[in-house]
Amino acid sequence: MKRVRKFLEADIGVVKPEVANLTDPHIFTMDLELPKKADVLAYLDHNASAPHRKARIIVFRGDLEPPVVEERLCGPLDNIISCPVDVTVPFSQRPVENREYEIYERSIMKKIHATFEHWSSSYRKGRDRMRNSEGKTNCDYLLLVKLKNKGAFIDSFILMCAGALYNDIQEFLTLYNNGTIKKTQMKYPTKQEALFSTLKQRGSPKPPDGKRYTIRHRKVEYLDMWSFNFRMSTIFGPGIYDVRFLGERIAYEINLGEIVVFYSGYNPMQRQAFYVDSFVLTGSQSQALVAGADCPTTATFLPLTVTSQGREEPAVFPRAICIFEQNLGTPIRRHHSYDRDSGVDYGGMLDSALIVRSIHTIDNYDYIVDFTFHQNGALGVSIGQSGFLFTSFYTPEERPYGVKITDHITGALHVHLANFKVDLDINGTSNRYESIDIEEETVDLRQAKKSQAKYSQTRFSYNIKETERKAALKNTFNTPMYHIFHNNDARNKFGEKKAYRLASNGMVKQLLQKNVGNEGSQAWARYQLAVTKHKDEERTTGNPYGQWVSDQKVVDFEKFIDDDENIVDEDLVAWVTVGFHHIPHAEDLPVTTTSGKHQSFYLFPYNYFEECPSMKSRDAIYVSHKDSKRPEKGLHFEYYGTGDVKKYNNKGVCRYQPLDIAEFWMKNPDDLVELTKHNGVI
């Protein structure tokens, strides 16, 4: 980088950043330019010479007329011989750099602040309140400024207030004072009232040490947040029941209903292969989970008892289910602010969740079923596949249906499908199902002066599903939408519906022709989502008799929705289908792997709470200035996860000395946030 800068200073007169103005030629940024792929492959695979390294340099040329942005390619980097212009961009399209923010503040904003402070004594107080607010984009800005930056001089702007636009300050003040502008009275919030945007931990803290879940009989409690019962159906598999978050029931039951696989092929065996897993009693096939491979070694393993088909005594599988808390290694939320005016530096929290897992070996395939309970009120349900492929002898006729994965073996195309029953009770059993449909609209691009310009954006609308047929979704994948369930009488303090959102990440289109071959025995697979009125007799979509195609269907899902009953303000059940089309490949040998292939759906709170429930968690970290006006004084570090180590040690609770994260960062706080220096990076 130093070599590039020195070359450009001599070549085109680039000015050093410490003294450069917007009208001077100066470097905005540098980046390594990747070589051509063919050159890299020649070097990697065919012993060709290593490609020369080059850099792409973005230079602001405010010194030219008209001013432009130049992208230059400099190289070779070990001995630079040229930096020719590769791309030229209009100056008005340049990214904003540090010095421009300073120009805005010195010229435009200084003028605006002075005018309003003269006009209103409370303006400065409000400005300072916003300046020191965490999450400034969450603040209630009614007065906005749109700057015009067409050239190298920034000297004009448009005022926006409560959605209206004004050409200058005087126009705004005149209309404000004569009552034309609608006013909204707002009081300055107290520190307590302003908590919604802070990332500090709050609420009754949850215990951080030891196992944070308990199991009593078949009831699980986790962090004083989640509670639920669980069971393993011998026929259909795992389910959770009376699912509550913060004491309120979210779901009556969520359970696996059925797993099926449809195969394709040229030879008769592959062509007719069709597996319904409840046929072999799905639940009974989770038998011996292995600590350290199937589940963490810290997991709690629980037994399953099933009727034996070979002896009088029931069969007991001691390790059929595992329950464990897992640090998922991903922030569930975080924000790192480098803006000294914001009053906050960092707030974040790793996502630790409770997982209930079973693994069902159905002949050649292994299905991993997880229920995952997050601290923000989200509940995930997923299924992943591993195990051996179902293969056939390779012939040329198999080519449209499979991939040759050894000298003589074809892996056959097939589709995995699983259905889950989700009986939601959101604020009781009187629920509605609505889609929130997202659509495009073309609107006028509003400016202070009349403009004919158009702009494309999206908007949403609520679409209540009144009957079961209207709630049977065959997703076209062309209309984005949310799916929410709520009690129409339950609203939050802002008047929004207190709902839970169902989001499926495993939607798949079932392509088979209706009622041809085996398709008719699994009618639920026609829909990615269906919602029906709860009926006790409609227990599940699966049945162990569906393996054999017959006109006498023991369970016919179409009958669940054919009566087309009203589902407004009723006890509702969602039937969720997930799956994927599997075209085998050589890397499926010896067994298929699960990475990135889990199909899942989630239940998310949607306006159900006034803020994210994870703010109660002691897993969070919060870092702030000791004195926001004097950042050189250093950092105040709040880490709630271990509490007071000495206090816990004296009680005999915490048996290890945890890493003192605060001490780690305090050695050089500038590594965490620019406190005493400024590196010239936005």
Structure in words:
The chain is mostly beta strands and 682 residues long. The protein has four domains: 2-95, Nuclear Transport Factor 2, Chain: A (Roll), CATH 3.10.450; 99-197, no CATH class; 218-307 and 318-331 and 355-426 and 502-606, Copper amine oxidase, catalytic domain (Beta-galactosidase, Chain A, domain 5, Distorted Sandwich), CATH 2.70.98; 620-671, no CATH class. The protein contains nine helices and 32 strands. Strands 14, 15, 16, 17, 18, 23, 24, 26, 27, 30, 31 and 32 form a twelve-stranded antiparallel sheet that branches. Strands 8, 9, 10, 11, 12, 13, 22, 25, 28 and 29 form a ten-stranded antiparallel sheet that branches. Strand 5 (143-148) and strand 6 form a beta hairpin. The longest helix has 22 residues, at 98-119. The relative contact order is 0.10. The modification 2',4',5'-topaquinone is found at residue 365. This is Amine oxidase. It holds the Pfam family Cu_amine_oxid. Belongs to the copper/topaquinone oxidase family.
